[in-house]
Design a protein that fits this description.
Elements lengths: L19 H43 L2 H4 L2 H16 L1
Helix pairs in contact: 1-3
C-alpha cells in the first residue's frame, strides 16, 4: 500500500506538516472562529431588521388617527405592514 500523502511507492509524496492532533486542534480553532463570525453576522442582521421595523412603526404612528380611517390612511398603514413583512 502506498503512503498516505500520494505517490506509488511506500513513503513517497509530501510529508505531513502537522500531526493528527495538531491538525484537529487547528480545525477546532477554525470552527470556533467561524461560529463566532456567523453569530456576529446574525446579530447584525437582527439589529438591522429591528431598526427597520422600528422605523416603519414610527411612520405608522405619524399617521394621524383621524386619517387612519380614510382610504388613504388605510392604504398607508397597509403599505407599512407590507414593508414590515418584507423585512
Amino acid at each position: 500500500m502506498a503512503g498516505v500523502h500520494g505517490g506509488k511507492r511506500s513513503g513517497a509524496g509530501r510529508k505531513p506538516v502537522l500531526t493528527l492532533h495538531e491538525g484537529l486542534s487547528v480545525g477546532g480553532e477554525c470552527e470556533h472562529y467561524w461560529r463566532a463570525i456567523a453569530l456576529d453576522q446574525a446579530k447584525e442582521r437582527r439589529r438591522n431588521r429591528n431598526a427597520a421595523v422600528r422605523s416603519a412603526q414610527a411612520r405608522a404612528e405619524m399617521t394621524p388617527l383621524r386619517l387612519r380611517k380614510t382610504r388613504i390612511g388605510r392604504k398607508n398603514i397597509q403599505d407599512i405592514k407590507e414593508d414590515i413583512d418584507r423585512f
